């Protein structure tokens, strides 16, 4: 596919995505408005058809389904437009909707919410958070990007990030010719300050490996704002400055999707997450990295308990499972609660369809902050663990490297290598790739609730997939 075709494809998909939510672009609302998750009873009377998936999936997404032998089903249909119009007619602002969970996130007051529940096609109306109507701060020029602030290591291609990729044998997989080229990686995060300006991402911009971003929170295309967390996460995979920092998938193409509301912590963010991963699916994303997790909220009645972490209660975990069934490799951070009273995982790391990543030190020991498993229904989590303590990252505001710790960084370090495996094995199933990563790991025979199956060896994972890919007599 040519670069021009890719641009036109993305523009048309983004236009389709945003047109459904035009009502969310109105003036700021009063403090009496709240967000509600509204689920529908059915998709009866839908104008969508399995025979015309181009109405809700991009050509790339359709081609990916065909390559992986995954059928388009009614679950892929957006909610019935007549139902969405019915919500608007009651006075609700439709912020976004979920195809897979047949639902919509709306802003309205409590009286309107009660009226929505009375509609015969509405199944549930659940309060998920307060609506502020405030948008992000917008993009600002960063003065520190002009001058190199870190000394280049001329004898080390991966620069200051060498240890974090070599511990998982990712450098050897790169030497075999796999750097994520041709793979689309969606990054769900809280903001990507400086990505539009940083020299660490020059090659992504120059080679059109950085697709136009989208902000699910504000429903616009301004994602280079609000937080530097996503910038650092992206640098673990996409940075490409030899001698300073080269990520685990410098050849991949990236779409940055802002789903996190950095000004508060409510269940609304899970709704944004669902919309974000469904948007990634509509584009045909191959890999998703989510360095986000949900356990406790500003309003205590929303809080999860450890018994809730069964992979089925949260809408985000449900969506992660569906995403995997649609052919997306969903890689997510396990959480940073290992030293806290909580100790356990966060949502959506409990999802069966997510490859949940714990953190280790650069010499392979479990990082003290890394969350423990298992899930509430006793499944092994984290799945595997990767470097996440004092790893090298791109500084979001200056042209220099910095350091940071968290499963937030262990996850993208792993996700980049998973993208390399997807490049090498474009027809392998999601579960085949997950199994290869797990079975390549340092304690594959004795997985535990501390670091899961252990530290992956991505060359070994490659050979496991290669062996499985051989034709049988």
Automatic annotation (TrEMBL):
Catalytic residue positions: 189, 229, 408
Record key words, sorted: Hydrolase, Protease, Serine protease, Signal
Signal peptide: 1-24
One of the protein's GO biological processes: proteolysis
Pfam families: Peptidase_S8
GO molecular function, a single term: serine-type endopeptidase activity
Residues annotated as domain Peptidase S8/S53: 180-454
Family named by the database record: Belongs to the peptidase S8 family.
Protein name as it appears in the record: S8 family serine peptidase
Organism the protein comes from: Phaeodactylibacter luteus
């Amino acid at each position: 596919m040519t670069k021009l075709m890719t641009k036109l494809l993305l523009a048309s998909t983004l236009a389709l995505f945003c047109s459904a939510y035009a009502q969310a672009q109105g003036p700021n609302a009063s403090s009496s408005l709240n967000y509600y998750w509204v689920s529908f009873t059915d998709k009866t009377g839908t104008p969508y058809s399995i025979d015309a998936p181009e109405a809700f999936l991009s050509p790339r997404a359709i081609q990916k389904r065909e390559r992986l032998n995954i059928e388009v089903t009614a679950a892929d249909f957006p909610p019935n437009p007549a139902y969405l119009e019915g919500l608007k007619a009651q006075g609700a602002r439709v912020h976004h909707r979920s195809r897979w969970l047949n639902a919509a996130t709306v802003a309205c007051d409590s009286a309107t919410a009660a009226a929505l529940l009375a509609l015969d096609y509405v199944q549930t109306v659940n309060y998920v958070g307060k609506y502020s109507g405030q948008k992000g701060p917008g993009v600002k020029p960063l003065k520190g990007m002009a001058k190199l602030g870190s000394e280049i290591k001329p004898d080390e291609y991966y620069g200051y990030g060498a240890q974090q990729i070599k511990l998982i044998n990712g450098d050897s997989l790169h030497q075999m010719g796999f750097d994520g080229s041709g793979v689309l990686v969606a990054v769900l995060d809280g903001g990507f300050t400086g990505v539009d300006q940083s020299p660490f991402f020059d090659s992504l911009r120059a080679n059109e490996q950085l697709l136009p971003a989208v902000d699910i929170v504000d429903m616009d295309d301004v994602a280079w704002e609000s937080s530097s967390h996503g910038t650092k996460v992206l640098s673990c995979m996409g940075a490409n400055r030899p001698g300073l920092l080269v990520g685990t998938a410098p050849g991949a193409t990236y779409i940055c999707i802002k789903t996190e509301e950095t000004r508060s912590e409510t269940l609304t963010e899970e709704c944004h997450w669902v919309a974000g991963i469904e948007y990634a699916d509509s584009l045909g994303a191959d890999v998703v990295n989510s360095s986000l997790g949900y356990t406790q909220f500003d309003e205590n009645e929303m809080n999860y308990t450890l018994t809730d972490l069964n992979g089925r209660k949260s809408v985000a975990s449900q969506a992660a499972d569906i995403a995997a069934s649609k052919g997306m490799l969903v890689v997510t951070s396990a959480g940073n609660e290992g030293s806290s009273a909580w100790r356990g995982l966060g949502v959506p790391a409990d999802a069966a369809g997510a490859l949940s990543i714990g953190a280790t030190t650069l010499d392979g020991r479990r990082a003290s902050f890394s969350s423990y498993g298992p899930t509430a229904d006793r499944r092994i989590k984290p799945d595997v663990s990767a470097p996440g303590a004092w790893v090298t990252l791109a500084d979001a505001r200056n042209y220099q490297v910095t350091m940071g710790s968290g499963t937030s960084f262990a996850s993208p370090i792993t996700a980049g290598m998973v993208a390399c495996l997807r490049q090498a094995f474009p027809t392998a199933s999601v579960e085949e790739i997950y199994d290869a990563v797990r079975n390549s790991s340092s304690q594959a025979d004795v997985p535990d609730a501390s670091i899961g199956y252990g530290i992956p060896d991505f060359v070994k994972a490659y050979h496991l997939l290669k062996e499985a890919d051989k034709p049988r007599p």
